[in-house]
Amino acid sequence: MRCGTREVRNRNVTEQLEMMPAQTESESLGLIGRDIGDVPEDRWAQALVDMVRVQEAVYLRQGRGEYEAFVLARDGVLALAEYFGARMWYLPRGDRLRTALRDAEIYRQAKRGNIRQLADEHRLSEQQVYRIIRQQRALHLNKIQGRLFDD
Question: What are the residue boundaries of the Mor transcription activator domain, all occurrences included (predicted)?
Fold first, then answer.
C-alpha cells in the first residue's frame, strides 16, 4: 500500500512538472548543476521530489494556491540545489535547527538600541543576545572574507 502511495505521488509530481511552462527540463537541470549526469538518478530523484513536496506543504498551510505553492517550492529547491548541489553538508534537526534559525533572525534584526527588545522577545538575557550577534557576525564575516589563519 505504501509503495503504491509513493508511485501515485511521483506520478502527480511528474504530471505537475510536465504542466510547468516556465522552464524546460534541460534548463531546470542546468540550474541544479552541470555534473548531474555523474550521479545515478536513484540517489537523488526521490529526495528531490520529497524536498519539493515538503516545501509545497508549508506554502499550502500558509494559504497559498496550489500552483503558487508548487512554483515557490520548486524554485526554492532549485536555488538550494544551485548553492549546495554536489556538496556534502549537514542540516541539524529539532532544537539545534530552531536555535540556529533564531540566532540568524536575531542577527538580522539587531540594531543599536533594540537589544533589550530582542532579549525580551526571545526570552534571553542581553548578554546572550550580544553573544549571538558576535557569533553570527563572525560567521558572516568568515563567509565574506574567508579565514586568514587556522585555529
Answer: 43-148
Predicted confidence (pLDDT) per residue in 80-114, tens digit: 888 888 788 888 899 999 999 999 999 999 988 89
Does residue 41 share a domain with residue 104?
A: no
Instruction: Clarify whether residues 60 and 18 are in a common domain.
Output: yes
Instruction: Clarify whether residues 74 and 101 are in a common domain.
Output: no
pLDDT digits (tens, 9 = 90+) for 32-84: 544 545 667 777 788 888 999 999 999 999 999 999 999 999 999 999 888 88
Amino acid in the structure at residue 35: D
**29 and 99: one domain?**
no
Contacts 24+ apart (CB under 8 A), 84-92: 85/32, 85/33, 86/33, 86/35, 86/39
Q: Is residue 21 part of a domain?
A: yes
